[in-house]
Design brief:
The protein is of the alpha/beta class and about 475 residues long. It contains twelve helices and 19 strands. Helix 4 packs across helix 7 and helix 7 packs parallel to helix 8. It binds zinc ion.
Length: about 475
């Protein structure tokens, strides 16, 4: 099957240029002016941009948590992602206590089986780092999983101590893996949380107050220092504040192999949103929490100056009426996480590109190219180039969408950006040469999304 995109404008991290783009089978076969149709199906790209399919490297689909699971599974989450222009994502397989990493990976493969409509990969979250598990890290790349994650928060559940963080960093680096770190000081958060509960401070607004930015800045600096000593590359997940940003900026200026991501929601919301009337604030409970408008400005600066390399979502939806409500009388019982997988490109385009903060080229770099470079998918994905997978978004920069739970495709009863009208949305989406979204119609098929067996981390490809 061949498809020819005529009259479009191709966007790469370096340039924007008018060209035709020919897809043959699952790959891009040619990008040049005035390509002949020669029997190919012709798609008129006039007035639109051709972007590489979005890659979201931080998601939690069907994630088990205290007897419930995040509301989107590998079907509904994929449909929603596709409507938003995302054609690949990397989810976190989380090691259950006592389990081998291979068992955890098998569990997550099972979750995706028969459901996937876009391509997907896994990172491995190490939650129970026994000596045998640390030895197992060496095998992850041969299973297509060249990245591990450790958490410095969630004491008693997922948090690892400094010795373990250091051991993981060193072992991962030795075998060509990139270590991702959730940076918050879980020990101090635990104290502040216990004190808040004892004082009867139980509403959602106490969630950010018990996880102050200083504790993210401190943990980010500590992770970076341990990575330097371990001679390991490190990737800071969901960075939210200026204090953490300064740590990353300083380390990168010293030439250390440090990268960081933020998520769109951190540009839009502050701790004040946790204090909305009634229990509405629970909709905004995620960790690290929303900060201040000053931090938002710092994040935009970080995106502009290259301190931040990726914008992913940390998509982890829980229904307000049935799940968030578990914490009505105690914010510590509100399941953490927000729904974003569908809206990532549109909200970043509107607040970033339309508002003049970043170029369309930088937008592509943050949402597709850099994620592919850092996580072993480049040049197969993340760029429009001859030989690459034909994951293509026909992006209409003028198309307006009003974001709402009534119209979104995520399987969750609220939209974080409810009522917000944004400019920029996909007119059509193709996954490996096959159209999966046409305007408001979904054309994808469950079971056609493929597991992404990713390459080992390569510093020479990293941004
Ligand atoms: Zn996460």
């Amino acid at each position: 099957m061949r498809t020819l995109f005529k009259h479009g404008t191709v966007v790469t991290p370096d340039k924007t240029f008018p060209a035709d783009l020919l897809v043959d089978g699952e790959r891009i076969a040619a990008i040049a002016p005035d390509l002949p149709a020669d029997g190919a199906t012709v798609v008129d790209g006039g007035g639109t941009y051709l972007l590489p399919g979005g890659i979201d490297v931080h998601t939690h689909l069907d994630m088990p948590l205290n007897g419930i699971a995040s509301a989107d599974d590998f079907h509904s989450g994929h449909v929603a992602a596709a409507f938003g222009g995302t054609t690949s994502h990397i989810d976190f397989a989380i090691q259950p206590k006592g389990a081998a990493l291979r068992e955890a990976l098998d569990l997550w493969h099972e979750r995706a089986r028969g459901k996937a409509c876009i391509d997907y990969g896994f990172h491995m979250t190490i939650a129970d780092p026994t000596p045998a598990v640390l030895r197992e890290i060496a095998r992850l790349p041969e299973w297509g999983v060249p990245s591990v994650k450790v958490l410095m928060a969630y004491k008693g559940r997922l948090q690892v101590d400094d010795a373990t963080l250091f051991a993981v960093l060193r072992e991962a680096a030795r075998h060509g893996l990139l270590t991702m770190v959730h940076c918050e000081n879980g020990d101090v958060i635990e104290i502040l949380t216990r004190e808040a509960v004892a004082a009867g401070n139980l509403g959602p607004k106490f969630h950010p107050l018990t996880r102050p930015a200083e504790l993210e800045g401190e943990a980010t600096g500590r992770a970076i220092a341990l990575a330097a000593v371990a001679a390991a590359p490190v990737y800071i997940v969901h960075l939210t504040c200026d204090l953490a940003l300064q740590q990353v900026r300083g380390a990168r200026a010293r030439g250390q192999h440090v990268w960081a991501e933020t998520c769109p929601q951190y540009f839009f919301f502050t701790a004040d949103d946790l204090d909305r009337p009634g229990f509405e604030g629970a909709k905004f409970v995620c960790s690290p929490p929303f900060r201040t408008t000053r931090d938002q400005e710092a994040l935009w600066e970080g995106v502009r100056d290259g301190t931040l390399s990726v914008v992913s979502t940390d998509h982890c939806p829980f229904n307000f009426a049935t799940e968030k409500v578990r914490g009505r009388d105690d914010f510590t019982k509100i399941p953490n996480g927000v729904p974003v997988i569908e809206d990532r490109l549109s909200v970043l385009h509107d607040a970033g590109v339309v508002a003049g903060r970043i170029s369309l080229n930088r937008f592509v770099e943050l949402t597709a190219t850099n994620p592919a470079r850092l996580f072993g998918l480049y040049p197969r994905k993340g760029a429009l180039a001859v030989g690459a997978d034909a994951d293509i978004v026909l992006w209409d920069p003028k198309r307006e969408r009003t974001l709402s739970a009534r119209t979104h495709h995520m399987r969750v009863d609220y939209n974080l950006f409810e009522g917000m009208t944004v400019r920029g949305a996909p007119a059509g989406v193709w996954l490996r040469g096959r159209q999966i979204v046409d305007g408001d119609r979904f054309l994808g098929q469950p079971g056609t999304g493929q597991f992404l067996h990713r390459d080992r981390f390569a510093v020479e490809l990293a941004p």
